[in-house]
Amino acid sequence: MLSELTVLAVDDEPANQRAVRRTLADDCRVLTASCGDEALALMACEPIALVITDHRMPGMTGTEFLAETVARHPAVIRVVLTGYPEVDTLLDAINRGHVYHFLGKPWEARELRQVVRHGLERFQAVAERARLLDDLQIACARAEREAAQKSRLLALTAHELGTPLHVLINALALLREGELGEAALDWIDTAERATAWLIQGVTQLHDAARIGAQRIPLRLERLDLVPLCVAAVAELRNGAAARRLDIGFEADAAPLPIRADARWLRQALGALLSNAVRFTPDGGAIRVSAGADEGCAVVVVADTGIGIAPQHCAELFEPFSSAGGDVLLHGSGRLAFGARGLGLGLAMTKQIIEAHAGTIGVQSAPGEGSCFTLRLPRAE
């Protein structure tokens, strides 16, 4: 409320001080000072929102006083009362004192109240903006700390799980070499598949930790994007052969040269394509295309899957996004319909593409499938 703010009136004439106090008494708290030094002493111990100062004062002029307030109390709103509106004086006050408003003597009570009210509103608005900015900076710092903690947790989890998993896979290999019955071999097959699935998850956690910490070790080289897409589609077809998915690929006849890290880019393409397979019902269709557009190499992955709700599209590329549905309602198998992963695949894909100075976007609607578009700069 404006009535809780304090105004300081500086004038060497007591009558003028009393006049300002009477005029503003109903609007705000008013303090008075007879010179610049006294006013600065008051401002050092009182929360002043606005100062009203005469210009012609002994010892320190109003302009000199306001220049001091700019240095010591920059947020304070400054108003000058003067009966000598010389141009040089006005310019000096504007330049040195950052004056909010000038009022000539004799002033009208209504005009003074209006100027002070608007000045106090401005003071409140600036203070509120500063408070919101501080809150935003605190929130950003907290979010950065939480992101760093999450990356450390992912790295620690991957490290702690990695060693026993490698021991387990080696133990299964040794068991397979022994003289075991057919039933035991079936169990070993199952255990090896489960262990391989766990190792893939741990590898994804490790990669996600590196990406979250902005530590993607790119080894850029000139390569053709088309063969990378062909290999990714071939792997997709092999993995989803039992699901009767119609998976097609088409590309421009000309090569699509880019500068990229083949390993990371293959991972991004694989995550994008496996996502299409897992959310497309059996018998559906997936179309992959590669081409050039305005200096970019473009890959489009379109499916006839279940689609994505509008409220989930915005968070689709965030780690552990809820857009993929409840992870407890997952299917079995890496490419089974409805299978849920860790919620890191698309987030990692986005980070990898952006590390290559590219972009990725999605268009989707529930029941109408999804279309992901990936754009990468073409090599010179």
Describe the structure in your own words.
This protein is α/β, with parallel strands linked by helices. The chain has three domains: 2-107, 3-Layer(aba) Sandwich (Rossmann fold), CATH 3.40.50.2300; 145-212; 221-377, Heat Shock Protein 90. It is built from ten helices and twelve strands. The protein has helices spanning 14-24, 36-45, 62-72, 87-97, 109-177, 182-212, 225-239, 262-278, 310-313, 345-355; strands at 6-10, 29-33, 48-54, 77-82, 101-104, 221-224, 246-251, 257-260, 285-293, 296-303, 359-364, 370-377. A hairpin with a 5-residue loop joins strand 11 and strand 12 (370-377). The model has no long low-confidence stretch (mean pLDDT 82).
Summarize the structure in short.
With about 375 residues, this protein is of the alpha/beta class. The protein is about 50% helix and about 20% strand.
Main attributes?
380 residues, alpha/beta, Rossmann fold, Heat Shock Protein 90, 5-stranded parallel beta sheet, 10 helices
Portion in strands: 15-25%
Helical segment count: 10
Give the termini separation: 62 Å
Helix content: 40-55%
Number of self-contained structural domains: 3
Overall 3D form: elongated
Q: Please report the first level of CATH classification, the CATH class of the largest domain.
A: Alpha Beta
Largest sheet, in brief, is:
5 strands, parallel
Number of strands: 12
CATH topology of the largest domain: Heat Shock Protein 90
Question: Uncertain regions: pLDDT < 50 for 5+ in a row?
Answer: none
Gyration radius (Cα, Å) is 35 Å
Mean pLDDT: 82
Q: Look at the structure and name the CATH superfamily of the largest domain.
A: Histidine kinase-like ATPase, C-terminal domain
Q: Can you tell me the CATH architecture of the largest domain?
A: 2-Layer Sandwich
